[in-house]
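Appendix B. Extra example for self-study. Work through it before the problem class; the solution is given directly after the inputs so you can check yourself.
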Amino acid sequence: MKRGKDKAVPEELREALPPESEEARTWRLLDEPEAPVDLEEGWSRLTAALDEPARTRPLRLHLMRTPAIRRLAWAAVVLILIGTGTVFRERSATFVVGPGSVQSVTLPDQSIVTLNSGSSIRYRSRPLDGILTTWKRTVAFDGEGLFSISHTGSPFVVEGPRATIEVLGTRFNVRDRNESARARITLLDGIVRVRARNQPETTAEVLEEEGDSAILVDGLLARAESDVAAITSWTERGFVLVDESLRDLFRELEIRFDRHVQVAGPVELGRSINMFYQAGATFDQILHDACVAHGCTYREYSDKVIVFPAPNDPR
Amino acid sequence: LTRVDYDDLRDRLQTDDRDALRMLYELRLPSLHRYVGRLVGDVDLARDLVHDAFVALWQARSRLGGQVDLVPYLYRIARNRALRHVRDAKLHEEKQQLFQLSEQREAPDTSESVDDQQMRVRLRRWLDELPPRQREALVLSRFHDLSHRQIAAIMDLSVRTVNNHIVRAVKALSSRASAFSGA
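Solution. Structure tokens for the complete assembly:
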């Protein structure tokens, strides 16, 4: 439907634009094409934002294109909002780490979480019974984090976009970014139980040996062995991707280096990729290597990098 | 078609009524998105700015009072954000992308003459070439069901100036149309 098609001249303009005039015809013929909007998607995003205690919003690519000063503010000012609900004796805390930085935070229960770029965590602890003897600690999580959970006797649950992880005092790495297709949880120490979100406990995989990983793709849970040093090297500013797609690589580059990567033309984004860099690898180095291996080329602009298929790529 | 009682929505918002917000959202998101898209020239960015405007409205709900005209208020929040963004972007000499409204692929309207159909297409282009404030006033009046008083509140102008902008814009478009038809 065209916008306001054939709408009559409003009362206020009748004098200046009389009904039979050429102006009135112009008025009638003016229309405005649709701009597509997804009401449902927008509304669920909006309600999520309304529930968020801190003013955060989902990381979107063009955030990286906002002027440098706001970007700086975003990255440097790590939004910290701590609400201590004294009335209900609940405790909560929210931490957001912007693009380009890595931060360690201490939760109210003294658990320590190191957060990779573009990650957010919201902690709450609530009594499970009326006499406040058993508490449940829950964190809503998105991104990548290395968790060291303090042993308090109360259960600790991590809810990622895809995975639910139940913990007693232990150390583990969670990589569960909302925008990426796969989640990987890797155990360092202790025991954790992992299941797909909204799945019953009976479906859970138990990780009990160092290097045990649970991988979630499309709600399906699988086990794998991981090199713990590689998986956690991001905390030392290394750059590692295990079995992820080219799409995930570009996204990770954006988040870690606070750059904007655009893809032009038929680059096979679903292609699987493994990368391992010690600390100090640069954006250019990583992108260059990825393109050599996967048949792409790229050009740098002041505000972004555009990736193209390599001209002589036989694929 | 029943007339929406925006004053009622405003009052309900102040009692933390999310259904009222949802209703306002459904009623106004598409048009607000088009409007902000025109201002910033980027569909995705417009989506985020409008999202922020609704969040800001929700956060300000307890301060709305009983007099505020809700729709212009919401437009104004969105507009301020959009203009701030455009200003910042200009400071950094960011290149503006053209806002691509998707063209309809609907069947041609057979009740309408070919002349009229062609003129619609031309008018769309000429509209983009009007001075920005004239265009904005005309767009708000023509496509957003807003009175001159409401447009004045959104654009921070007097009602008389809004009227002048709109009349001038329509006359400019008409004279181009006449010149075209006469040629």
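Self-check: Residues 54-65, 77-89 of chain A have pLDDT under 50 and may be disordered. If your reasoning did not lead you there, revisit section 3.
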